């Protein structure tokens, strides 16, 4: 059996690639002048969570460029070392090791999903390098770990905001339809934990798969459950859009609550007219033009929205906003620590007080590494194909 | 009763999409013995292509036509550049080639398009039509109608045209087909082009219901493959029946049993059917081909 | 020279040599971790080599067995208070048992029908791991207790490197012995022609089942090691894309070659690390590479190279 000559270049290319990986640091990038400060990031820029990781990656690149245009940090350029875990926690862990051991980053912004974040935490905790996670799960910051912070609201906060609204409207019996992805599952569980405090009971508890394209069977069950007064849909991605459409198709007239997983204008486009009247808790970033002029978040949100939409050509999402807050928090911490030492950055992060971000206003304490309250959420309703601030009920 | 009807409508809509993909599998398998794991990606190209062409200002029919043509070109290239050079390779190797092609198509699509979900406006509005206590979306009728039209057209083509008969002859016995003067290479290309066109058309009509994204193809590939196997690989009638059955099983499982395990129910059904009918519901080919 | 190339122990010695050399040249523990992952995925793929390369049966759901092994190591200590090491063994036994139960009926299927049946099995396992949140922690996964080996707490990249390397050596030795044994010859016979093998008096279905069970045990042990090394496991481990990856490892390296399997695993584990500079294009490049390999080297890297070398030698 002979090997065709055309194959040799292929094999040679493969050999070079293997060699590149083994040789590692020497070949991973051209040397940058003046000893840059390296900030690491692992996000799911591809794979099933790409619609979250993609805006995160774009935001991080955009704002590290911004930092460098302004002269970097502490007079040194900033280098973003960005890896894509493809939604695989095992890969995330490997990249975490690479960031710590090989790239020697001083801080990390990332972990798109709770699973990936949890897989990476031990690596950074052990190395004493601060992490600002972009994932929602409450287990990331409960119990508090010295080096782990996060920017997204926890699901629990969203649940509380929704149930407050339901309670104010006199709703006591609800149906639930949750996505079986990490986001939907985690939020469902958190909601079930706090729902009792609001005197609300769940009469129907349905779920759908992350890639399902039809939820009428589940919604039909909820429709036929006697006594349901409102429906809550913890989920993200295309699921909530399809739920909203099917909801309208089945002619269900009860109030529909979505979550902060419905995170950008594209939800209204995807769900179409069916989205009218849907209520959800969301951060300020979705309603920049409707914020009061004296709202402290207004200028921050407006700036991010303009820059991101100009750079990416896509509507802003809360997920990109989490990354914005993550990189800004780290940059501020480096500035205020006057040092690129990971431990000092961590201390400065924990001392963050009143940072006005696009997601909310953050104040970290040694016992609170999220630093957002329910007031960072605003109750929105969709009217005439756009978000509207919902006046507090009653 | 109205609940049963509601579930049946949903199941038939989803099933019609699966059926079209399963038919694509069948066409390619019959002509070339290849299971094409990039079949679902044609659906994605149809949907995403139409979305982006419409965003560029084209009208829906024009955008859809160009997207379908693009999918056909991808299908032909797949055949010419990846399947043809590997002729005679083992089935596993051929599966891996098409899986590689599928990963490649997704990789290019996420750069060419983007990574977000997209939708198309429903062709005839969003007002549900009430039927016997249940409701059906006009778009569902479009999906089922398109599926039906394509199945009939394919049947007429295969049974009543010379080229179609050449496809069937090649499927039955490639060597004999060659001997009687059929241009086998052309027939194979035709099979790839046709099944790409069917997948892309399914994508165009389904996108207003299912939404679309660069990586939605994997799901359709798995379901379409399962449908084709359930019906009996190589049998067009089996592909259609298999597709509709899987759609219905999934929907009824979600409605009456457990929405969490509806995919498991569908795959369990396939396992059970294969245990009793190892060649699927309509499979009858006696010769061992693998 | 030819004798060396053909000797059964050559690949094993070469492997052991590489294993001894890597820690000396690896600059950081990140590189050690990548190497350890190569050994672990090689072990999982070796099982498939026995099933696909020797017995000629395909499995598109093999990550399901990897998931069973991984979650045994996660669930046992966390929910039942069992020793992690014991759970590694229990996971292997459980996985073998499941393979035996599932394999008996489905191995009667042939070709693409076997492919869809195994694929369905994998999907169901992944779905269970995904859905039974109480038991498995759901889609975000669950953390795994530290492993204690005879009082020695296994932590750190270097320790895991040696543990995984040791496991792979044992696995490879076993696979090579099977290949040379009467069972191996019987498997190869049925790979070539089941009808002929039956005619030669080989109990075809028993041999196929044995290969399937063995493959499941390999995958489960690899899964258990992966879970214990990472300290966390997610249902992603049992996903269809992982099953595809395992099959790709076996084929890229060379169907039926132990050394080739390791090379294939190394290729696919290292590739994403090598492609980080072209992040945007990573998926496209990966797809293209799989196609190019399958089209131009359908025999895999190692058999093609061996053929080339043998041809050049006098």
From TrEMBL, chain A:
<feature type="domain" description="Leucine-binding protein">
    <location>
        <begin position="36"/>
        <end position="370"/>
    </location>
</feature>
<dbReference type="InterPro" id="IPR028082">
    <property type="entry name" value="Peripla_BP_I"/>
</dbReference>
<keyword id="KW-0732">Signal</keyword>
<dbReference type="Pfam" id="PF13458">
    <property type="entry name" value="Peripla_BP_6"/>
</dbReference>
<dbReference type="GO" id="GO:0006865">
    <property type="term" value="P:amino acid transport"/>
</dbReference>
<comment type="similarity">
    <text>Belongs to the leucine-binding protein family.</text>
</comment>
<feature type="signal peptide">
    <location>
        <begin position="1"/>
        <end position="33"/>
    </location>
</feature>
<protein>
    <submittedName>
        <fullName>Amino acid/amide ABC transporter substrate-binding protein (HAAT family)</fullName>
    </submittedName>
</protein>
<dbReference type="InterPro" id="IPR051010">
    <property type="entry name" value="BCAA_transport"/>
</dbReference>
<dbReference type="InterPro" id="IPR000709">
    <property type="entry name" value="Leu_Ile_Val-bd"/>
</dbReference>
<dbReference type="InterPro" id="IPR028081">
    <property type="entry name" value="Leu-bd"/>
</dbReference>
<keyword id="KW-0813">Transport</keyword>
<keyword id="KW-0029">Amino-acid transport</keyword>
UniProtKB/TrEMBL annotation, chain B:
<feature type="transmembrane region" description="Helical">
    <location>
        <begin position="237"/>
        <end position="258"/>
    </location>
</feature>
<feature type="transmembrane region" description="Helical">
    <location>
        <begin position="179"/>
        <end position="205"/>
    </location>
</feature>
<dbReference type="GO" id="GO:0006865">
    <property type="term" value="P:amino acid transport"/>
</dbReference>
<dbReference type="GO" id="GO:0022857">
    <property type="term" value="F:transmembrane transporter activity"/>
</dbReference>
<keyword id="KW-0472">Membrane</keyword>
<feature type="transmembrane region" description="Helical">
    <location>
        <begin position="51"/>
        <end position="78"/>
    </location>
</feature>
<protein>
    <submittedName>
        <fullName>Amino acid/amide ABC transporter membrane protein 1 (HAAT family)</fullName>
    </submittedName>
</protein>
<keyword id="KW-0812">Transmembrane</keyword>
<feature type="transmembrane region" description="Helical">
    <location>
        <begin position="140"/>
        <end position="158"/>
    </location>
</feature>
<dbReference type="Pfam" id="PF02653">
    <property type="entry name" value="BPD_transp_2"/>
</dbReference>
<keyword id="KW-0029">Amino-acid transport</keyword>
<keyword id="KW-0813">Transport</keyword>
<feature type="transmembrane region" description="Helical">
    <location>
        <begin position="264"/>
        <end position="282"/>
    </location>
</feature>
<keyword id="KW-1003">Cell membrane</keyword>
<feature type="transmembrane region" description="Helical">
    <location>
        <begin position="7"/>
        <end position="31"/>
    </location>
</feature>
TrEMBL record, chain C:
<keyword id="KW-1003">Cell membrane</keyword>
<feature type="transmembrane region" description="Helical">
    <location>
        <begin position="63"/>
        <end position="82"/>
    </location>
</feature>
<feature type="transmembrane region" description="Helical">
    <location>
        <begin position="209"/>
        <end position="234"/>
    </location>
</feature>
<feature type="transmembrane region" description="Helical">
    <location>
        <begin position="12"/>
        <end position="30"/>
    </location>
</feature>
<keyword id="KW-0812">Transmembrane</keyword>
<feature type="transmembrane region" description="Helical">
    <location>
        <begin position="284"/>
        <end position="309"/>
    </location>
</feature>
<keyword id="KW-1133">Transmembrane helix</keyword>
<dbReference type="Pfam" id="PF02653">
    <property type="entry name" value="BPD_transp_2"/>
</dbReference>
<feature type="transmembrane region" description="Helical">
    <location>
        <begin position="246"/>
        <end position="272"/>
    </location>
</feature>
<protein>
    <submittedName>
        <fullName>Amino acid/amide ABC transporter membrane protein 2 (HAAT family)</fullName>
    </submittedName>
</protein>
<dbReference type="GO" id="GO:0015658">
    <property type="term" value="F:branched-chain amino acid transmembrane transporter activity"/>
</dbReference>
<dbReference type="GO" id="GO:0005886">
    <property type="term" value="C:plasma membrane"/>
</dbReference>
<feature type="transmembrane region" description="Helical">
    <location>
        <begin position="112"/>
        <end position="130"/>
    </location>
</feature>
<feature type="transmembrane region" description="Helical">
    <location>
        <begin position="160"/>
        <end position="180"/>
    </location>
</feature>
<dbReference type="InterPro" id="IPR001851">
    <property type="entry name" value="ABC_transp_permease"/>
</dbReference>
